Amino acid sequence: MARLADLHPDDRANLAGKRLPRLAPPAYVPAGPLPRSRIALVTTAGLHLRGDRGFDMASAEYRAIARETAAGDMVMSHTSVNFDRAGFAEDVNVVFPIDRFRELEASGTIGSMADVHYSFMGAYLEPMDYAPSARELAALLHGDGVDSVFLTPV
Fold first, then answer.
1. Would you state the pLDDT for residue 30?
2. Rounded CA gap, 60 and 134, in Å?
3. How far apart are CA 68 and CA 48, in angstroms?
4. Count of domains in the chain?
5. What CA–CA distance (Å, rounded) separates 151 from 44?
6. Is residue 112 part of a domain?
7. CA dihedral 114, 116, 122, 124 (to 10 degrees)
8. Closest by alpha carbon to 138, among 154, 118, 122, 121?
9. Residues near 1 by Cβ (< 8 Å), separated by ≥ 6?
10. Which end of the chain has less Cβ packing within 10 Å, N or C?
């Protein structure tokens, strides 16, 4: 992983100058016991299904990944030059631990996995550019009965 000090000065200035949203204090929602939780995976690794259109360089959209999707059916179109894809190439679970969560579900450690998981392209945009997609995704997760999200920021 690149350190801020290792980046080109233009990249460093871009990252340091990001417009961050002002957030109200979050509403505290106590988590339920894991064996009764329904969990979705959300990543910013730019994953999508093989054969689907890849992410555009600056995209706030997301892609749906069904719970039955095999690891080999996912590809990464993350375009950051500062991102090393070697871990993903070896094991998708590094950025999207779907197999590990299947194991947790099978063992009863978690109640269930969501029917659909999601991936964003996590580069190039200001945080507020994701707000419409994030609201839409929150409604989808709510509709699927998800009460916890495991986020893998890449």
1. 77
2. 9
3. 14
4. 1
5. 8
6. yes
7. -140
8. 118
9. 84
10. N
In-domain check, residue 6: no
Consecutive H or E run containing 150? strand 148-152
Any domain includes 20: no
Closest CA to 147 of 60, 36, 4: 36
User: Residue 38 pairs with which residues in a beta bridge?
Assistant: 112
User: How far apart, in whole angstroms, are the C-alpha atoms of residue 3 and residue 125?
Assistant: 19
Taking a C-beta distance cutoff of 8 angstroms, is the pair 42, 36 a contact?
no
DSSP label at residue 85 = -
Helix (H, G, I), strand (E, B) or coil at 111: coil
The residue type found at 27 is A
- What pLDDT is stored for residue 2 in this prediction? 63
| Residues of the chain below pLDDT 70 | 1-2, 14-21, 79-87
How large is the C-alpha radius of gyration of the chain? 17
List the domain range (segments joined by +) for residue 92: 39-152
Q: Dihedral, CA atoms, 122, 128, 129, 132, nearest 10 degrees?
A: 110
Give dist(CA 79, CA 85) in Å, integer.
10
